[in-house]
Amino acid sequence: MNTKQLRPIVILWMAAALLCPAVFAQQPANGVAVHMVVTVEPRHETDRATVTRDDVMVLEGKERDQVVAWVPAQGDRAGLELFILIDDSSGFSFGSHIPEVKKFISEQPASSKIGVAYMQNGIARIEQSPTADHELAAKAIRLPQGVAGANASPYFALSDLAKRWPQTGERREVVMVTDGIDFYYGTGDLQDPYLSAAIEDCQRGGILASAIYFPGSGHLGHSYWINYWGQMYLAKLTEETGGESYGVGFTGSAPDFTPYLTDAARRLDRQYLLTFLAKPEKKPGLRSIKLRTELHNIDLVSAKAVYVPASE
After folding, report:
1. What local confidence, expressed as pLDDT, does residue 52 receive?
2. Which residues are within 8 A (CB) of 134 and not within 5 positions of it... i.e. 6 or more apart?
3. Are 155 and 202 in contact, with CB atoms under 8 Å apart?
4. How many angstroms separate the Cα of 75 from the Cα of each of 80, 128, 146, 158?
5. pLDDT band, very low/low/confident/very high, at 183 (cuts 50, 70, 90)
6. DSSP secondary structure, the chain, as one string
């Protein structure tokens, strides 16, 4: 193509640029910043590894997102709001575990604010809002009502808490004590819509949910079938939100919560604040992600989906 042939094309391109300056001035976006909490879990307790930003990979499908920050949740970044959420239909034998729960609360670092709520009639009845006064939070722990059906669904209560929990920029986590049974849906599969809604509410709010299985009162407390599915629901909830599920079997309960609570505290101490650039989209919503690392002695534990705001 000679100069005379090229001249009309250049003129047309310049005219288009004058008519639509915003289109030509716009730069391609690198992505939308997304923040999440990740727990570094050693495969063996004796394993020790230094995890750097370069060790962390974030995948959306087969595409890799850019990791822009990987900061230990320590020092001035250690802020945490932690709710103890107890099922009010739990059996009265929960009373033997109250000292263990209170001890766990009292041992949390000063950077942690502890809240206490009870699952009651499908809501999270808050007995104590998150407070740095751990003694005050511990006093809010009481015996459950111990009445079968006092809590319609633990997943209603968790969704209620997630929706009413204001964002402060600090880590937000829940330790639930419940049998996981949903009286509204029943049992027999993992398609419970209320479980799915609770998972999504936690993922949208960046809330990590862990659960200690504890049987309810009455006949259901020793029903193998019912408790099997209750624990399956809790396992799915915690896996999808980046938490941990604790239990000893499908009937009965742990004689001591201390090992569970010790592990929960250890996990809180091994967390990082991750920021990555998600693919820009016009509409906000939950986005499935996977975390990977080439380090062989650790796993990166996080929610399976994160909320991504719309790109500007």
Report:
1. 96
2. 105, 106, 108, 112, 114
3. no
4. 12, 25, 40, 29
5. confident
6. --HHHHHHHHHHHHHHHHH-HHHHHPPPP--EEEEEEEEEEESSTT------GGG-EEEETTEEEEEEEEEES-GGG--EEEEEEEETTB-GGGGGGHHHHHHHHHTS-TTEEEEEEEEETTEEEEEEEEES-HHHHHHT-------TTSSS-HHHHHHHHHHHS---SSEEEEEEEE----TTT-SSSS--HHHHHHHHHHHHHTEEEEEEE--BSSGGGG-HHHHHHHHHHHHHHHHHHT--EE-S-SSS--S-SHHHHHHHHHHHTTEEEEEEEEPP-SS-EEEE-EEE-S-SSEEEE--SEEEEPPP-
Q: Which amino acid is at 61?
A: G
Q: Which residue has the tokens 């001890």?
A: 103
pLDDT score, position 252: 59
Q: What residue segments make up the domains of the chain, in order of their start?
A: 32-74+271-308, 79-268
Q: What pLDDT does residue 218 have?
A: 54
pLDDT digits (tens, 9 = 90+) for 265-283: 999 999 999 999 999 999 9
Listed in sequence order, the residues at least 6 apart from 232 whose beta carbon sits closer than 8 Å to its beta carbon are: 180, 190
CA pair distance 54, 47, nearest whole angstrom: 19
Cβ(279)–Cβ(65) below 8 Å: yes
Spatial distance between the Cα atoms of 198 and 152, rounded to a whole number of angstroms? 14
User: What's the one-letter identity of residue 174?
Assistant: V
Average pLDDT for residues 206-235, to the nearest whole number?
82
CA gap 151, 161 in Å, rounded: 14
Superfamily of domain 79-268: von Willebrand factor, type A domain (3.40.50.410)
Segment 26-43, tens digit of pLDDT? 333 579 999 999 999 998
> In Å, what is the CA distance from 22 to each residue of 17, 19, 41, 154?
8, 9, 47, 51
